[in-house]
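Appendix C reproduces, verbatim, an entry submitted by the partner laboratory led by Prof. M.T., so that reviewers can inspect both the input and the predicted structure.
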Amino acid sequence: MSELGLVKRQFGHRAPLALSPAEIRILDDQAHAARTMWNCLHSWWTMTPKGDTKLSLADAAIRQARKDLDYLAVLPAQAAQAVLKTYMRAWVNCWEGRAEEPTYKGRFGSAMSVDIPQGRDLNITRVHRRWGMVNIPKVGRVRFRWTKDLPVGKRANKENRITGGRLVKDALGWHIVFRVQTLERAPEPHQGPEVGIDAGVNIPLALSNKDHQDHGRPPRLPNGDSDRDKWLTPKEKAKLLRLEQQAAHRKAFRKRAEKTSRRLQHTYDQIKQLRAKATRRALDWQHKTTTYLARTYGVLVVEQLNILGMTKSPAPKLDPEQQGAFLRNGARAKAGLNRSIAQEAWGRTMTMLTYKTARYGGQLVKVPAPHTSQRCSACGFTTPGSRESQELFACKNPDCGWTANADWNAARNILHLYRIGHVIVEVPAAGRRGRRAGKTVKPVAAR
């Protein structure tokens, strides 16, 4: 922050591209070349002796590979350098405990993307109100949807400019994400009230003042499992089920190692489009909800959740007689709970709250998570059996007997922990903290 009260902010702006079939094939080839470059780098890194794993040697290996292999040469040189930079960043994140070790990227299931590291290579111009033009290496001038004012032309300077971009592909096609750097006035400290937030599967975000944020999810299914496609309408769910049945039927006739037919691939594309629609609706709800919370409240108190540990599968029973009952009841119920937790995307919600509270001058605080759901927020005692169900909390303390929604009770306890000073960390405006690494590190990761 400078003396004038200004602060630099970096964000990404995503816009769809209008591409011809030939241009789509070029970008697909570049994305597969980038994925292959990543896999070659991973093989080189894991197989090279420790003393020879240097950045200069990796750079030389990339240059030589682009000369020797034609299918790697389709990737622009700067995009290849960006793959190396991203791969090294992945190892740094692993060593610092923010992520797992980098692994190979498969052809299916990996995000297709190509980096454009230099903003000056984009040469962005605005055609009219709805469309703009951008230069993509080895593709040429391409139109993109202009949905946000960008610092280009006379509006661009040293502090307000586009620093680069990334081409990404999803179920809707290719998009470009601009990396924008702007200089803004630092926000004033938020004077809003304090609130505790409990993230759950019954109520997505339960607040201590009963200002709960729900996305109108349907009731639980008769078997107790949650709806896997809650962001889709009944007609869309029926269509998705029909497409999945068609895909399973057509896949049964495909021989081993046989290329996927166009009809089956078309069915897969339709399934991906429906699931992408559900994802966009979930993201829209998360953005709107977190923006409302950041604008309304000055201090937001959340739990320090170990989401990876919460979504682990239970250990199987050793007794063969109990194994069948465990698979029928315990494993199935835990799988449904894991799926519900994954669909709520608590980690993504906390990431949004992190940068939005900083943008509006608020504060995000994390407190310990243990026993917030079992402790009574009225009397302060933890009595066994008080959490009667996923939705109901009834205090078993003879002198209390307080009854309330379980998520609201947990939100009140979360706020109380902050007020008495049991704070783990005040989340800064930059980045996020992930899972901590263990005390031991694998030999290959020590490089």
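Residues 122 and 136 are 6 Å apart (CA to CA). Additional entries are available on request from the coordinating office.
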